[in-house]
Amino acid sequence: MILIEEIPVENINEFWSIHLKYLVDDGIIDDPEDIEYFSGDEYRDIIKEHMIRKCDKHHMVYFKEDKNRIGAAQYNTYQSEDGKCFVMDFWVFPEHRGNGMGHKCFEALEKYTKADGASYYEINSEKEDSIRFWKSIGFVENGTDEYDMQLFIKR
After folding, report:
1. Which of 4, 18, 72, 151 has the greatest number of C-beta atoms within 10 Å?
2. Whole-Å CA distances, 138 to 13, 40, 142
3. E strands along 95-139, which residues?
């Protein structure tokens, strides 16, 4: 059984230490400007501000199995709008990939976020293997975002 561990705002530095490694190692970013942005104060301060607001809070979570952290995610659920849960990051640590672990983690995230008002899910993705994963759990293409990155939705 996969459990969700919320990361409180006062403990986000540990998350940041693995976040950039994930973005680079999984080939999500490779441009020096992107690396600088995602490791910089501007991006991190915005996320922190969104974590402490009262409505439509930003969440950082770990996925846990048998008390071991096996992955992580960042998301916002917009209760003040239509319940969209926008998943910014979602990954299973490399040593835990395979055997349907990504599917199990997303099922746990769905259950967890629905209890907090999520009614549907959206994510952007460019990598072919990620797109295959999202489609395999029911996401379909849904246009592009402001950066012309492909969007996927699951209702």
Report:
1. 72
2. 33, 34, 12
3. 120-124
Q: Give ∠ CA 63-47-5 in degrees, rounded to 5.
A: 20
User: Per residue in 8-59, pLDDT tens?
Assistant: 999 999 999 899 999 999 988 999 999 999 999 999 999 999 999 999 999 9
Tens digits of residue pLDDT in 105-115: 999 999 999 99
First to last CA, the chain: 24
- Supply 72's token pair: 């992580």
Fold of 3-154: Aminopeptidase (3.40.630)
Distance of CA 39 to the CA centre of its chain: 16
* Two structure tokens written together for 121: 């899910």
What are the boundaries of each domain within the chain?
A: 3-154
The structure tokens 């490779």 sit at 30
Distance, in Å, from the CA atom of 81 to the CA atom of 30, rounded to the nearest integer, reads 34
Q: What percent of the chain has pLDDT over 70?
A: 100
In this prediction, residue 98 carries a pLDDT of 86
Structure tokens, 5: 């561990």
> How far apart, in whole angstroms, are the C-alpha atoms of residue 67 and residue 74?
20
